[in-house]
């Protein structure tokens, strides 16, 4: 049973990049750079394989590392789209493979846990596909728009300053809110305390007045003398 959490984050550093995909291809195939990070759980005695598409001329990189389980090692192999086994199976804690200029196609990546009959493994898979020709194309387009790294840096710094100002305002408002809340709590306690004191005084005064008024109308009975 394969349980994995995947994180696909795109290295879109420059502005003006549009995503264009074909109907029968994944949406990320036309991006200049893609990085994927997988956490894969492999049961004892099992093997899991994956396919990753790489554009012609792109740089493909894949690495694996056993994070937890058993002896901390597993089998790892990479097969080229042509069918050639470019990274043979070996029982190891980690491994990596890189193709600087791929001919294109789907790479076959397998993680093998067949030698471990009782211990499952948690494996980290990291893959990147970088198309440097597309980066150069986008750089030229940005140069035509007079967008330089300096302008980009100044824009980021302006955004950072604005974020810091917003954080400062939020912290200031949180402090004011806490102060006002504590003031309301203190006022509420003050009103309740003096209200109880006044109620006790009024009740005591009423009882005393009733007692003395009754004493005024209290008639002592006297027995007649013979």
From TrEMBL:
<keyword id="KW-0812">Transmembrane</keyword>
<feature type="transmembrane region" description="Helical">
    <location>
        <begin position="191"/>
        <end position="213"/>
    </location>
</feature>
<dbReference type="InterPro" id="IPR015720">
    <property type="entry name" value="Emp24-like"/>
</dbReference>
<dbReference type="InterPro" id="IPR036598">
    <property type="entry name" value="GOLD_dom_sf"/>
</dbReference>
<keyword id="KW-1133">Transmembrane helix</keyword>
<dbReference type="Pfam" id="PF01105">
    <property type="entry name" value="EMP24_GP25L"/>
</dbReference>
<dbReference type="GO" id="GO:0012505">
    <property type="term" value="C:endomembrane system"/>
</dbReference>
<keyword id="KW-0732">Signal</keyword>
<feature type="domain" description="GOLD">
    <location>
        <begin position="47"/>
        <end position="129"/>
    </location>
</feature>
<dbReference type="GO" id="GO:0016020">
    <property type="term" value="C:membrane"/>
</dbReference>
<dbReference type="InterPro" id="IPR009038">
    <property type="entry name" value="GOLD_dom"/>
</dbReference>
<keyword id="KW-0472">Membrane</keyword>
<feature type="transmembrane region" description="Helical">
    <location>
        <begin position="7"/>
        <end position="28"/>
    </location>
</feature>
<protein>
    <recommendedName>
        <fullName>GOLD domain-containing protein</fullName>
    </recommendedName>
</protein>
<comment type="similarity">
    <text>Belongs to the EMP24/GP25L family.</text>
</comment>
<keyword id="KW-0217">Developmental protein</keyword>
């Amino acid at each position: 049973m394969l349980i994995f959490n995947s994180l696909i984050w795109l290295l879109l550093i420059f502005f003006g990049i549009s995503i264009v995909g074909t109907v029968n291809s994944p949406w990320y195939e036309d991006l200049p750079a893609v990085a994927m990070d997988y956490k894969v759980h492999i049961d004892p005695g099992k093997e899991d394989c994956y396919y990753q598409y790489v554009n012609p001329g792109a740089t493909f990189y894949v690495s694996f590392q056993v994070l937890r389980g058993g002896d901390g090692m597993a089998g790892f192999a990479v097969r080229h789209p042509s069918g050639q086994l470019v990274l043979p199976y070996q029982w190891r804690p980690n491994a990596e493979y890189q193709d600087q200029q791929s001919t294109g196609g789907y790479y076959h990546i397998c993680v093998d846990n067949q030698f471990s009959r009782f211990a499952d493994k948690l494996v980290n898979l990291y893959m990147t596909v970088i198309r440097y020709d597309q980066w150069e194309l986008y750089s030229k387009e940005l140069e035509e728009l007079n967008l330089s790294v300096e302008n980009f840096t100044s824009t980021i710094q302006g955004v950072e300053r604005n974020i810091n100002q917003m954080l400062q305002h939020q912290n200031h408002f949180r402090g004011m809110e806490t102060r006002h809340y504590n003031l309301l709590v203190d006022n509420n306690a003050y009103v309740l305390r003096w209200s109880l004191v006044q109620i006790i005084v009024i009740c005591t005064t009423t009882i005393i007045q009733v007692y003395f008024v009754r004493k005024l109308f209290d008639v002592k009975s006297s027995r007649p003398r013979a």
